[in-house]
Every structure is written in structure tokens, then in C-alpha cells.
């Protein structure tokens, strides 16, 4: 008995090292969308950065795709408890999109085609912690996973990674996005299990 349980817990702890509390591993890539999948023609796509009053920067698909991109391999953690390890993406770091933007504001609200929104502290999307990704596994990002382009913030629960992202609005104070206003945590750190407001 002792040998069996020691072996079992030893194996489990090495696997759990990459898994936040309360999460289980999946090899699938589930699709979680609060509404229908919008289809955005590339000649109508744009990503805009505003301060709530004026647009500070605007990228169309060509200017966006001409920016330097990075290949990243990251783990995903959904608040519904699935985690998927070692996913590969290509995207543009928010640092690149935010270059030259001067702001006193400390928060950002990301908005999507189809009306989704999610709030994130600005410092969490800088320093190569967040990307607008357009490829998954070396292929164009499929619409159901947020194509043509989605936000990816792998260190926070996946609801922060807005699919079909269309821009961000800088804010002086934290405000609740779609899920955050329905009771989910304002920050959403999977390692601190910040699932719901009050966690
Ligand atoms: N625009 C938009 N982005 C979204 C969502 C959504 O409903 N709409 N769902 C979020 C949630 S709750 C999760 S878990 C992930 C799911 O991403 P996936 O469908 O690619 O797995 O997208 C997030 N981004
Ligand atoms: Mo989610």
C-alpha cells in the first residue's frame, strides 16, 4: 500500500507541476463562445487602440500582418477547468502594437467583433505577456477559435483571451468586461484560482 501510494503521488506531482489547482488536462481544443461565431472579411478587419475619447492607433489587416511576429508555445487554462499544455501560436506582441502609445492609464478593455469584452491591467499585456495571434499550429486561426485574430494572454484564465478581437480601450480604472460583470474574477490568475469575484 505504502509503495503504491508513494509511486502514484510521485507520478502525479510531476505531472501537476504544470497544472494550476483544480484543473485537468485535455488534448482536445474545446470551443467556448458566448454567442455565434462572427465572420470578419480581412478587408474590413481592423484593430484600434483608443483612450475612450480618440483613436490613438489603427491597424488594418495589411499593416497588422506587416508587423514583426513571434512564435510562442504556451499552456492554456480555462475557468471551466480544462487545461491544454504546449499550444503553438504565431502573433504580434502587444508591445509592438502599443509602441509609441503614451498613456497615464493602467487598465485596458479589449473588445471583440460580436460584442465580447474583457478587462486586463495594462502591465499584464506588456513585456511579451500577450499577443494578437493569427495562426494556431502553423495554420490560419480557424473562426471558431477566434480567427482571423484573437488576443492571447496565457498567464490568465482563457476567458481573458478575447476571440475576434477588434481593439482595446485604455482606462484610468478597472472596469468589468462581459464575464467579469457576470461574477467572474476581475483579474483571473489560474495559479491563485481566481475564478469568481471574491476568490
Ligand atoms: N469574443 C469572444 N472571446 C472569447 C469568448 C467568447 O465567448 N467570445 N470566450 C472566452 C472563453 S470563456 C474561453 S475559455 C476561450 C475559449 O477559446 P477557444 O474557444 O478557442 O477554446 O475564449 C474566450 N474568448
Ligand atoms: Mo472559459
UniProtKB/TrEMBL annotation:
<dbReference type="InterPro" id="IPR036374">
    <property type="entry name" value="OxRdtase_Mopterin-bd_sf"/>
</dbReference>
<dbReference type="InterPro" id="IPR000572">
    <property type="entry name" value="OxRdtase_Mopterin-bd_dom"/>
</dbReference>
<feature type="compositionally biased region" description="Low complexity">
    <location>
        <begin position="1"/>
        <end position="11"/>
    </location>
</feature>
<dbReference type="Pfam" id="PF00174">
    <property type="entry name" value="Oxidored_molyb"/>
</dbReference>
<feature type="domain" description="Oxidoreductase molybdopterin-binding">
    <location>
        <begin position="35"/>
        <end position="179"/>
    </location>
</feature>
<feature type="region of interest" description="Disordered">
    <location>
        <begin position="1"/>
        <end position="22"/>
    </location>
</feature>
<protein>
    <submittedName>
        <fullName>Molybdopterin-dependent oxidoreductase</fullName>
    </submittedName>
</protein>
Amino acid at each position: 500500500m505504502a509503495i503504491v501510494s508513494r509511486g502514484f503521488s510521485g507520478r502525479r506531482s510531476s505531472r501537476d507541476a504544470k497544472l494550476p489547482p483544480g484543473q485537468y488536462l485535455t488534448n482536445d481544443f474545446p470551443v467556448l463562445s458566448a454567442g455565434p461565431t462572427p465572420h470578419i472579411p480581412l478587408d474590413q478587419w481592423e484593430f484600434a487602440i483608443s483612450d475612450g475619447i480618440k483613436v490613438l492607433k489603427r491597424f488594418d489587416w495589411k499593416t497588422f500582418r506587416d508587423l514583426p511576429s513571434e512564435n510562442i508555445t504556451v499552456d492554456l487554462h480555462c475557468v471551466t477547468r480544462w487545461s491544454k499544455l504546449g499550444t503553438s501560436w504565431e502573433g504580434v506582441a502587444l508591445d509592438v502594437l502599443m509602441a509609441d502609445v503614451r498613456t497615464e492609464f493602467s487598465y485596458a478593455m479589449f473588445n471583440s467583433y460580436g460584442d465580447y469584452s474583457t478587462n486586463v491591467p495594462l502591465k499584464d499585456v506588456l513585456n511579451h505577456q500577450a499577443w494578437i495571434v493569427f495562426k494556431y499550429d502553423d495554420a490560419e486561426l480557424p473562426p471558431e477559435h477566434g480567427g482571423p485574430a484573437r488576443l492571447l494572454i496565457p498567464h490568465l484564465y482563457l476567458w481573458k483571451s478575447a476571440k475576434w478581437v477588434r481593439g482595446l480601450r485604455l482606462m484610468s480604472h478597472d472596469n468589468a468586461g462581459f464575464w467579469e460583470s457576470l461574477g467572474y474574477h476581475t483579474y483571473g490568475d489560474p495559479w491563485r484560482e481566481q475564478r469568481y469575484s471574491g476568490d
